[in-house]
Structure formats: structure tokens, C-alpha cells
Amino acid sequence: MAKLYFKNERLHMGISQRFVLRLVSYLVYASLMSATLIFFLSDLSILNAISIILALFLIDRVLQLRSAKRSIKKIPIFHKALSNSDARINTANYVQPGAIRAFEIAHDKTLLLGGQFCLYLALLLVKRRDIQTAIKRLEVEPEQFRQKLEALLKKSQSYKPKEKEVDKEIKKLGIEAFRQAKKNQRKYIEPADLFAAIVSLSHPGIDRLLTLFEISEQDLQIATIFSTSRLKNLLRFSPRPKRIRHRTVNRAWTSRPTLQLDRYALDLTDVARQGRDALLIGHEEEYDRLLDVLSKPAQANALLIGEAGVGKDAVIIHLASQIIADQVPKPLFDKRIVSLEIGSLLSGAQEGELEKRLNQITQEIIIAGNIILYIPDIHNLLKGTGQANLLAADILTPIINEGNFPVIGASYPNEYKKYIEEDSAFSANFEVIRVQEMEEEEAERLLTLKSLVLESEQEVIITFASIKKATQIAHRYFRQKPLPASAEDLLLEAIADLRGRGETILKAENIILTAEKKTNIPLQATKKEEKDQLLNLEELIHEQYINQDEAVIAVSNALREYRSGLNHSDGPISTFLFTGPTGVGKTELSKILAKIQFGDKNAMTRLDMSEYQTKESIQQLIGSPDGQSGGTLTEAVKDRPYSIILLDEFEKAHPDLLNLFLQVFDDGRLTDSSGRTVSFQNTIIIATSNAHSEMIKEEIEKGAAISYIEEQLKKRLHEYFKPELINRFTKIVIFKPLSWQSLLEISKLHLDRLAITLKEKHSLSVSIEDSAVSAIATLGNDPVYGARPLERAIKENINSVLAKKILAEELGRGDSLTIRYQDKEFIFEIKKHE
């Protein structure tokens, strides 16, 4: 790494020396101002000319009041310079005068009054309006923050540090402030960077203060972006002007105009010259690789692969801005990046005309000699959706093969796999660079900068807490798009909701409300109604479900742990293996749980694992390799991240497919065929199995304890599942065979539901006697299928009869109906409404 150090001569002077230096400086400028005025009023033309020169000098000094000696932006190939072991950078040269002044005052007060240097410096900075702005965005009152800081400083004043200790702290802070300024893409080290540096160096007093106000180090560092000049950031993200000044010839006058190319392309170096869209946060590794590829003497072609919104265009625009700033390797100096608009090129072109256009464009590029051709959505050349596309690919492929000029293509993972990877003649010309999704911290930084524009456009105030929450929620729950696009979409929706309610300050709770509305996932702290439901979940389930207490308690405990934040954060909410005979309620419990806790009985993805008995069936779950069809499982979880996944007859699935679930159970993640990561962290996964159900039944009949049966079952399940898979289940729940009493209660539950349906749809008052309940239980009892035949028994013996009577108008609205079983038949006694 380059050696960073901090050395400022003024800080090594005594207090009196600095005072004298400052006084002399003021006197010199006062003398120059006086001389300028006197010379300007003189009758001598030479003195008038001198006054103009002096005035220009003084104006320049005023304009440079906030400028450091050097600009961070002008460090050659900035991020690479820091990895050059021979480089030495004095960070003091990049500090704004205001920040240097804060160093001096804090330095002098520490030595004169005693106390901690960092606390003096922090107190000075907190009094600044820009730092107060950053603190307010964290939903903290700056005055309260300042008062607590003063109290900490007073306690520390009994400590008298030596000058060497203070100098050592200053050096550390100067170096760390440089790193903070780099992260925030600043030109100079500003006071806000000093404040962020103080926090990052983990001073005990500052740490206590942050803990008191529940602020993290990272949050405060990013919030200092709000202190940056608003005008500068509005310029970075505001829409491009309609008219962009176009420069076609390089400064060496060796290139040539490209009139035909300019008709069908946008010069991104022209766009960068306007100072817009040039910011790059994250993606440094991808950018470095792009520089290396484009600097090669031959086959300097790169292919950027990444999801929409991941930042491919940002990398290209940043490169364009670095080219115009001469911050690129020598082979890229004074190049133009020109984005070819395929749609415009193909529009209205017949076969002969298209070939003519392409040949003219490629000839212009070769003759110009300073063009880097950028082709967004390059896969469109190979799609074969029309003759024009095929012809364009046929013409461009051999030209790219020749390597006469560098080409950058951009595509998406699915399209790359489907169209480009299959065409080896075309794909061999490119070095693939995977543009990865940015980290949450990087997305927070980018959205903080963009929020300055959103505030201006939407007339709202956006707190940093809302940005942080939008990033966290989007990254976890909205995986259809990568960061930062997903978080920005959520932020915009929350702003729209906020404005719809007539409010003006966007807070974290607004983001949560919008996200809950979109996903039906409970994200807020539990409220009284939900707390009551969770605490009484067993009773609520048993209103619709008979027996199987162990299973009901297990799923209820899992949901309580999840909503109280005590569950394993990486994996799913819980993973269960429900074992036992057919028809004892394994699937029914899953349906009831989906309705009660997940809000909808359809909030459950049910997969019959007997349909996945071949190795190839994995593609059905995660998607086809060519990306043409999505996976049943992965797409379901993307669409409904908060849900139940029911894996029926789990033991019948192919062993390779079972291995797939090892990662899901452990990490709560699964990568689909297109390379997208799907999160299962908000799902309950229930696998059912009938394996060894006879053994379970026999042991229960013998009176064996459930713990003993569970232990024996685990040993026998190794015949179907690997031990590591069995051990990843949160709990293996044994479902008991249904007793006669349970069958009676289930029959009554089904018949009561039928009575409610008749009341709601036909206004019938229905009474079902115990004899009818007992008869249904008898008819629906099957030693092999458990309670499953009950519904069929009700349909055949009751529903079918009632349907005929309703259609024949024997039963009308308001009538009363009594159902009993007598002399081996069901009796339907109707009392007409008067």
C-alpha cells in the first residue's frame, strides 16, 4: 500500500508563532487591498494596471479560501495510486483551511486546558452548521449531542496530555480523514471528514456518546455526506441538458470526425464533460479490470455482465469522466467512449442500407483511432429476432475479431448464457467482467447522495435512518433487482406514500409501512394485537385443528422466536420434518398456519417431491440452465418471500436434490440457474414424510415415550437422508395416528364449517346432531389414509343431497335444517321459513 502520512508545519509551531504568522498574513492582505484601491484611483495608467493585477490576485485568493493545496481527484489513477507501494502521500496537503484551523484550535486548547484532543475537536465541529445537518439526519437533536459532548470533555480535563500524544492523534486523524474523503468522493478533506475520522478511530468517550444516542460508527460516517455542498451533488445527479457540446477531434489533432457514428450513438465523454452521472461508489475491482483489459495492445474487448440496475452504466460513465480528467493509463488517454444505440441503428434499415451504415461506422471508428465503442444490451445482436439483427451480428463479429478498436459490451446473466455464451466465435473476443451487486454500505452512500436531489424534486426531507432501512429491507426482501436499484425503488414508493398523506419528513417507519404493504411481511416491532395472537397461537390453531399438540407447540414457538428476534438470523425462520402416517394432519397444519400467521392460506408453496425423483428435476426447482424458464421453488420465494414452503413426501426426492436443501436449511439462500441468490430467511420450511410410519404407530400403541420414538426414528431416517441433512432440521415432529375421539372432533369441525357456509351463502340455519357426526367419522375412517376420506364422506352423503334440495327449491333462504343419522341413513329435516 502507498504510505499515507500527515505533516503540517503550522501545527508544529507554538501558539505565539502561529498568532504572529496569522497577524502578518492579515496585514499583508490588508496592505494589498489598500494598495489596490489607491492604485485604482490614481491618475497614472501604470498604477491602474497594477491595481487590476492585484485585484485579480485577491479575487483568486478569495475563491481559493476553501481549497486545499492539492486535490484528491488529481492523484493519478486514484485508487491504483494507493496500492502502489512506492507512493508517499502527505494527507495534510489535501485538508481544507477550515479543517486545519479546527486542528489548530483543538491542539492549543488541549495543551492549555487539558483534556482529550478528540473531544475538543469534535465539540468544535459539532458547532458547525454542516455537521449539525448530518446529526439531524440521524434523527438526533444537535443541541443534545453537543451538551453530552461538553459533559464528557469536562470530565476529561483532569488529564494533561503531552504534546507528542496530541501530535500522534492529529496524524492518525489526518490519515483517516483522507480515507473518509476518498470514500465520499470529495475533492478535499472537509471538516465533515474530520468528524467521520474521529468516530472511526474508536475513542472511548465518542463511543459512549454514540451508544447513548444509538448511532453506529458507519451511520454517522455516511450521514456526513449530507453536509456536502448541495449544489455539487445536484449537479452530479440532475438530468442531462438537451444540448451537449460535442468534441469530435482529440487534443493532438490526430483523430477524425465520425459523422455517421454520431447519428446512431451517444458520446459518453461529452456527457461526462457536463459533470453528470460520473460518480462511482463501489465496483472498484470491476473498474480496475476494465482499465487493464482496455489497455491491452490486442483484443482489448470487455463484456460487462450484471443484472439491470447493478451499475454497469455507472462504471462506463465513470471511465468517461476519468478519460476527460486524464486519470487513465496512457493507452486510454484522450479516447472517446461512444455508446452505440442498436435500436436507432436498425430502425427503418433494409438489408443493403444496414450493411452500408455499419461499414461506414466501422470505417469511421478505425480512421478516427480514438474511439472505444460501447454496445449496451449487446445480446440483441445475437437474438435472431429479425433479419436485421442477424445481419448486424454477421457484419460486426468479424470486425470485432480483427481487434482494430476496443469494444465494451454489456449484457445480463440470462441473456449472456442464452445468446452470447453459446456463440463461441463471438464470445471468444471478449474478456468477461462480472459486475457484482454493491454492498449495503456502498448503496447507503450512493442513496444518501441521490437523496439530496430527491429532496429538491419531491420537496421532502429524507433522514438517513430511512435510507438505511430502505437499503436493509430491499436487500433482504426485494431481490428482483439488485442494490442500489431495489432500495431506490422502495425509497421512491415511500416518498409517494408520504406525500399522499401530506407529510414532509421521511423516516424509517415510513419505509417499513411501505415495505409491509408490498410484502405482507411483519417488519415493525410487534404491536399488542400481534403479541396477543402470538402468545395464544396454540389456542388459535386448535380452533381449526385437532390434536397433534407437539407439532402445534413447535411451530408456535418458532414464530414467537422469529418475531422477538431470537431465531437464527442466517437460515429460514424454522425447518421442520413432519413424520407420521398419511392423513393425520401434517399438510392441514401447514395450511392453517399460512392462514393465521401469514395472512392467507395461499401463502404456501406446496411441492410434491415424488415428482422430483430424477437428477434433471433440479432444473424444475431452480430454473433451466439456458435461463428460459424460472424455477418453481426459486420464483415462488422471490414472489412471496414471507411464506411457508411445504415439501410433501420429502424422502422420495432425488439425493442430489436433497443436497440442494443443505444450503437452504443452513444459510437460508439458494442460487437459481441465472446466478441470482434467493433468500429463504423469511420462510418456514416444512418437509413431510411417511417413512417408517408403521414403526411410529406400533411404538405409540405400545405406550413408548415420544422422545424414545424420535430417537429411534432419527436412526432409521438415515436410510433416506444423510445425517447432515437430518441435523439441520430445527425439529423432527412425530404425528400420532388419530384416535376415535380425534376423528369425531375433526368430523364435527368439518360439519361446522359446512353449517357456516350454508348460513353465509343461503341464510340457512343448520343443526347437526351427534349421530350425524359419528356416522361421518365412521364412514371417513380409514386405517391407511387417516382422516383424508372424511371430506369425501361429507361430499357424498351430505353435500350432494343438499345441492339437489337447494336447486329443487326444497331448501330456501331462511329455512331451518336439522341433519341426523338414523336407521343407517342420513335424515334431512327441513323447517320452512314463515
Brief account:
With 834 residues, the chain is an alpha/beta fold.
Describe the structure.
The chain is of the alpha/beta class and 834 residues long. The protein has five domains: 1-226, Orthogonal Bundle (Double Clp-N motif), CATH 1.10.1780.10; 251-434, P-loop containing nucleotide triphosphate hydrolases (Rossmann fold, 3-Layer(aba) Sandwich), CATH 3.40.50; 440-519, Helicase, Ruva Protein, domain 3 (Orthogonal Bundle); 527-734, Rossmann fold (3-Layer(aba) Sandwich); 740-831, Helicase, Ruva Protein, domain 3, CATH 1.10.8. It is 54% helix and 11% strand. It is built from 38 helices and 20 strands. The strands form six sheets. The chain has a six-stranded mixed β-sheet with strand order 3-5-6-7-4-8, sandwiched between helices. α19 (387-402) links the parallel β6 and β7 (407-411). α1 (15-41) packs across α2, α4 packs antiparallel against α8 (163-183) and α12 crosses α22. The longest helix has 27 residues, at 15-41. It is globular, with a radius of gyration of 36 Å. Mean pLDDT is 86; it is low at 230-235 and 238-243.
